[in-house]
What does this fold into?
Amino acid sequence: MKNNFLKWLKAAGIRALKTVAQTAVATIGTTAVLSEVDWKIVISSAILAGILSLLTSIAGLPEVEE
It folds into this structure.
């Protein structure tokens, strides 16, 4: 049981970190000039995406066998 949870936690964490990075890049990419980036929006969007990724992972991850 503990081993499965650790596998899930690792897989969900990796997936969430990838989602956070992708969201940050996409949000930064919407501005024409780097100096115009609203970092509060980038950070809050990325964190929210990470949380949503973790919540979605509760339904199951194909990387972790049941």
